Amino acid sequence: MSSYVLASSQIVSGKWTGVVTSEDSAAPAIEVFHLAQSMADVQIDGAGGHWTVSVPIPQNLLSEGIQTFVVTEAQSGE
User: Fold this and answer.
1) d(Cα 66, Cα 78) in Å, to the nearest integer?
2) How far, CA to CA in Å, does 21 sit from each of 46, 55, 59, 66?
3) By the 8 A CB rule, do 3 and 23 touch?
4) What does pTM read for this prediction?
5) How are beta strands 30-34 and 15-21 bridged, if at all?
6) Whole-number Å distance between alpha carbons of 61 and 11
7) How far is CA 74 from the centre of its chain?
8) Please, what is the Cα angle at 13 between 9 and 17, to 5 degrees?
9) In degrees rounded to 5, what are phi and psi of residue 12?
10) pLDDT per residue over 17-74, tens digit each?
């Protein structure tokens, strides 16, 4: 089983972007959830143990309050 690490992340212009790394070269199957709802349009780019993951955040979730998004690797659920 591969171990993936979310190395960094940011939100710019309504899009969350993170960097996922692993010693394994197999691309992760990343899922992003908000309140147990799967987020659409998750994009994964990269290769060789270093991937950029991005997902647009719906406008109604962008606010001054706190929102929690859960990022998981689909096969392991971690």
Assistant:
1) 22
2) 10, 17, 28, 26
3) yes
4) 0.83
5) unpaired
6) 12
7) 11
8) 20
9) -135, 125
10) 999 999 888 888 999 999 999 999 999 999 989 999 999 999 988 888 888 999 998 8
Band of the pLDDT at 3, cuts 50, 70, 90?
Answer: confident
Q: Which residue has the tokens 């990343």?
A: 30
3-state secondary structure 19-66: EEECCCCCCCCEEEEECCEECCCCEEEEECCEEEEEEECCHHHCCCCC
CA neighbours closer than 13 Å in the CB half-sphere of residue 57: 17
DSSP assignment letter at 11: E
Nearest residue to 25 via CA among 7, 51, 49, 3: 49
